[in-house]
Specification:
Number of helices: 1
Number of strands: 6
Radius of gyration: 26 Å
Strand content: 25-35%
Length: about 140
Protein backbone atom coordinates (compact mmCIF):
# COMPACT_ATOMS: atom_id res chain seq x y z
CA UNK A 1 0.00 0.00 0.00
CA UNK A 2 2.86 2.36 0.80
CA UNK A 3 4.47 1.63 -2.56
CA UNK A 4 1.25 2.48 -4.38
CA UNK A 5 0.92 5.82 -2.54
CA UNK A 6 4.58 6.56 -3.17
CA UNK A 7 4.25 5.85 -6.90
CA UNK A 8 1.06 7.95 -7.14
CA UNK A 9 2.74 10.92 -5.45
CA UNK A 10 5.70 10.68 -7.86
CA UNK A 11 3.28 10.51 -10.79
CA UNK A 12 1.41 13.64 -9.58
CA UNK A 13 4.65 15.61 -9.16
CA UNK A 14 5.90 14.53 -12.60
CA UNK A 15 2.62 15.53 -14.27
CA UNK A 16 2.60 18.91 -12.53
CA UNK A 17 6.05 19.60 -14.00
CA UNK A 18 5.38 18.30 -17.51
CA UNK A 19 1.78 19.46 -18.08
CA UNK A 20 2.38 23.26 -18.22
CA UNK A 21 5.23 22.85 -20.72
CA UNK A 22 3.10 20.51 -22.81
CA UNK A 23 0.17 22.96 -23.02
CA UNK A 24 2.48 25.85 -24.02
CA UNK A 25 3.98 23.66 -26.70
CA UNK A 26 0.53 23.01 -28.16
CA UNK A 27 -0.17 26.75 -28.44
CA UNK A 28 -2.12 27.17 -25.22
CA UNK A 29 -5.22 25.44 -26.52
CA UNK A 30 -7.93 25.17 -23.96
CA UNK A 31 -11.00 23.06 -23.76
CA UNK A 32 -14.53 24.39 -23.99
CA UNK A 33 -14.79 28.13 -23.50
CA UNK A 34 -11.09 28.70 -24.21
CA UNK A 35 -9.40 31.01 -26.64
CA UNK A 36 -9.63 28.81 -29.72
CA UNK A 37 -12.89 27.10 -28.90
CA UNK A 38 -14.92 30.28 -28.69
CA UNK A 39 -16.60 31.64 -25.62
CA UNK A 40 -20.20 31.23 -24.64
CA UNK A 41 -22.56 33.74 -26.14
CA UNK A 42 -20.53 34.13 -29.32
CA UNK A 43 -21.64 32.65 -32.60
CA UNK A 44 -19.11 30.88 -34.74
CA UNK A 45 -16.28 31.60 -32.30
CA UNK A 46 -15.59 35.01 -33.86
CA UNK A 47 -14.49 37.78 -31.51
CA UNK A 48 -15.42 41.43 -31.89
CA UNK A 49 -12.64 43.49 -33.42
CA UNK A 50 -10.83 46.17 -31.47
CA UNK A 51 -9.66 49.05 -33.61
CA UNK A 52 -8.25 52.56 -33.49
CA UNK A 53 -10.39 55.12 -35.33
CA UNK A 54 -9.71 58.77 -36.18
CA UNK A 55 -12.74 61.05 -36.29
CA UNK A 56 -12.80 64.68 -37.40
CA UNK A 57 -15.25 66.82 -35.47
CA UNK A 58 -15.92 70.18 -33.89
CA UNK A 59 -15.66 70.49 -30.10
CA UNK A 60 -19.05 71.56 -28.77
CA UNK A 61 -18.43 71.36 -24.99
CA UNK A 62 -15.42 70.94 -22.72
CA UNK A 63 -15.75 69.52 -19.22
CA UNK A 64 -13.26 68.60 -16.51
CA UNK A 65 -12.69 65.07 -17.78
CA UNK A 66 -14.72 64.86 -21.00
CA UNK A 67 -15.22 66.48 -24.37
CA UNK A 68 -18.40 66.66 -26.44
CA UNK A 69 -17.87 66.88 -30.17
CA UNK A 70 -20.04 67.08 -33.25
CA UNK A 71 -19.46 65.15 -36.42
CA UNK A 72 -21.30 65.40 -39.67
CA UNK A 73 -22.24 62.28 -41.60
CA UNK A 74 -24.70 61.94 -44.47
CA UNK A 75 -25.90 65.52 -44.00
CA UNK A 76 -26.80 64.97 -40.33
CA UNK A 77 -25.04 66.30 -37.26
CA UNK A 78 -24.40 63.88 -34.41
CA UNK A 79 -23.03 64.85 -31.03
CA UNK A 80 -20.88 62.41 -29.09
CA UNK A 81 -19.04 62.51 -25.81
CA UNK A 82 -15.61 61.05 -25.05
CA UNK A 83 -13.63 60.85 -21.84
CA UNK A 84 -10.23 62.44 -21.38
CA UNK A 85 -7.71 60.86 -19.00
CA UNK A 86 -3.99 60.89 -18.27
CA UNK A 87 -3.35 58.66 -21.30
CA UNK A 88 -4.99 61.16 -23.67
CA UNK A 89 -2.56 63.32 -25.64
CA UNK A 90 -3.97 66.83 -26.21
CA UNK A 91 -2.30 69.02 -28.87
CA UNK A 92 -2.99 72.35 -30.56
CA UNK A 93 -2.10 73.37 -34.12
CA UNK A 94 1.56 73.95 -33.25
CA UNK A 95 1.68 70.31 -32.03
CA UNK A 96 2.38 71.59 -28.54
CA UNK A 97 0.88 69.67 -25.64
CA UNK A 98 -1.95 71.53 -23.90
CA UNK A 99 -4.33 70.89 -21.03
CA UNK A 100 -8.05 70.20 -21.37
CA UNK A 101 -8.93 73.70 -20.11
CA UNK A 102 -7.05 75.18 -23.10
CA UNK A 103 -9.47 73.56 -25.56
CA UNK A 104 -12.32 75.82 -26.69
CA UNK A 105 -15.80 75.37 -28.07
CA UNK A 106 -15.62 75.61 -31.85
CA UNK A 107 -12.17 74.07 -32.24
CA UNK A 108 -11.96 71.63 -35.15
CA UNK A 109 -10.14 68.51 -34.00
CA UNK A 110 -9.04 65.04 -35.06
CA UNK A 111 -9.94 62.68 -32.24
CA UNK A 112 -8.29 59.27 -32.06
CA UNK A 113 -10.55 56.73 -30.35
CA UNK A 114 -9.88 53.13 -29.35
CA UNK A 115 -13.11 51.30 -30.17
CA UNK A 116 -13.48 48.23 -27.96
CA UNK A 117 -16.93 46.65 -27.68
CA UNK A 118 -15.94 45.09 -24.36
CA UNK A 119 -14.94 48.47 -22.84
CA UNK A 120 -17.02 51.29 -24.38
CA UNK A 121 -15.85 53.86 -21.79
CA UNK A 122 -12.16 53.78 -22.77
CA UNK A 123 -10.89 57.40 -22.97
CA UNK A 124 -9.69 59.06 -26.17
CA UNK A 125 -6.10 58.34 -27.18
CA UNK A 126 -5.44 61.80 -28.61
CA UNK A 127 -7.18 65.08 -29.49
CA UNK A 128 -5.37 67.24 -32.08
CA UNK A 129 -6.82 70.67 -32.79
CA UNK A 130 -6.40 71.54 -36.48
CA UNK A 131 -8.31 74.82 -36.76
CA UNK A 132 -11.66 76.49 -36.16
CA UNK A 133 -15.03 75.04 -37.03
CA UNK A 134 -18.68 75.89 -36.63
CA UNK A 135 -20.82 74.40 -33.87
CA UNK A 136 -24.19 73.45 -35.31
CA UNK A 137 -27.40 72.60 -33.55
CA UNK A 138 -27.57 68.82 -33.08
CA UNK A 139 -30.82 66.88 -32.71
CA UNK A 140 -29.63 64.47 -30.05
CA UNK A 141 -26.70 63.28 -28.03
CA UNK A 142 -25.15 59.82 -28.21
Amino acid sequence: MRRVLYLLSILVVALSLVLPAWTQERGGEKGRGGEKGGERGERGGAKAAKQVVEVEGVISDVGEASISYQLEAKGKVAEKMIGVADVTRLEKMEWKPVKIKDLQVGDKAIITIYEDPEDPYFPALSVRVTGKGEVKKAKGRE
